[in-house]
Design goal:
The protein is of the alpha+beta class. It has helices at residues 13-16, 19-48, 74-77, 93-96, 120-126, 153-160, 198-201, 254-259, 301-304, and strands at 105-110, 116-119, 130-137, 142-152, 168-173, 193-197, 207-212, 215-216, 226-228, 241-247, 282-285, 290-293. A hairpin with a 2-residue loop joins strand 7 (207-212) and strand 8. Residues 1-9 and 17-31 have low confidence and may be disordered. The structure holds ligand MTE and molybdenum atom.
């Protein structure tokens, strides 16, 4: 159900938002004005500090995973975002500047030999950073091609040493904060949570991102640490992570909990399996690249299809 809006690649929000949420937004907007003033003050403070990891960029590009598409323009990718903590529109980049990204710690706990709470700068400097150009496909049928900087989750797993009983990783975003106005919405169950099976997480394509376009990742893209799993729909790629837990039980993710009929745990890209409300056969390249066919596993099937052998009875495709 795609309707042309002013910019051809933008979906009308009513097409991609569960209806009760779309309707409630009008009510929420009335409450939003007071927060804006407080957020302005926070934003000025947050922006003042230089990024303490800026000296690390740009880093060497790993050319293993080739992408045939041109890169999406940096300003296009950086101004068309999904980050519901800051609101349900695509234009949250300005509001997201209120996110304080230092000091920042990541708690790694659960079924690991070396649980720890690690300072973000210590973590970034300890990990093997590289640049990866990946296709990125949102479940809403838009796509971009972006040079991420990050490190394989496998490197973090080697640091904390998962126990044999660990079967899943559960990722969590920061919890409710006054400077994140979207979190005042009663429709969602915060914080944002996502999960991966441990073999998916250990795959070389799965990275924790610290940068983009050869610079530290900006707040609207999920600073200072976000997940990228390029063969899955974009909602799996959780932003601004504060906690990673190794679990035996499969975690329930944010969208799965809200709307399980439309968004499942595995969420692998498959053009042949339609979303209940729209086709996934094609995708719009944001920034004017036109509409192109979508690809099974977003084009990464040669690398990741083996992960799903023996899992055929699961609901693998979002
Ligand atoms: N914490 C958090 N992570 C999130 C989201 C969100 O709303 N909150 N949106 C997801 C969705 S639906 C997409 S498509 C991508 C968008 O990433 P980008 O804005 O960097 O392109 O972030 C994902 N990670
Ligand atoms: Mo998305």
């Amino acid at each position: 159900m795609l309707i042309k809006s002013k910019r051809g690649w933008e979906l009308p929000e009513s097409a991609v938002t569960p209806e009760h949420i779309f309707l409630s937004r009008r009510t929420m907007m009335a409450a939003g004005a007071g927060v804006a003033a407080a957020a302005l003050v926070g934003r000025a403070e947050a922006q003042a500090a230089p990024d303490p990891t800026a000296d690390l960029y740009p880093v060497r590009r790993n050319e293993t995973y080739k992408v045939e598409r041109p890169l999406t323009a940096e300003n296009v990718a950086g101004s068309y975002n999904n980050f519901y903590e800051f609101g349900t529109s695509k234009h949250i980049a300005h509001a997201a500047q209120a996110l304080p990204i230092r000091p920042w710690t990541v708690k790694i706990d659960g079924l690991v030999e070396k649980p720890q709470t690690i300072d973000i700068d210590k973590l970034i400097r300890a990990m093997p950073l590289e640049e990866r150009v990946y296709r990125f496909r949102c479940v809403e049928a838009w796509a971009m091609t972006v040079p991420w900087t990050g490190f394989p989750i496998k490197a973090l797993m080697d640091m904390v040493q998962p126990q044999g009983s660990a079967k899943y990783l559960r990722f969590e975003t920061f919890d409710t904060q006054s400077w994140a106005p979207g979190m005042r919405s009663p429709w969602y169950s915060w914080p944002y949570v996502e999960g991966l099976a441990i073999d998916e997480a250990a795959h070389d394509l799965s990275i924790l991102v610290t940068g983009i376009y050869g610079k530290p990742v900006p707040r609207q893209h999920g600073a200072p640490l976000r997940l990228i799993v390029p063969w899955k729909y974009g909602f799996k790629s959780i932003k601004s992570i504060v906690r990673i837990s190794f679990t035996e039980q499969r975690p329930q993710s944010f969208w799965e909990r809200l709307q399980g009929g439309e968004y499942g745990f595995w969420a692998n890209v498959n053009p042949a399996v339609a979303h209940p409300r729209w086709s996934q056969a094609t995708e719009e390249l944001i920034g004017g690249g036109g509409r192109v066919p979508s690809q099974l596993f977003n084009g990464y099937g040669e690398y990741v299809a083996p992960l799903y052998r023996g899992r055929e009875r699961e609901r693998l495709w979002a």
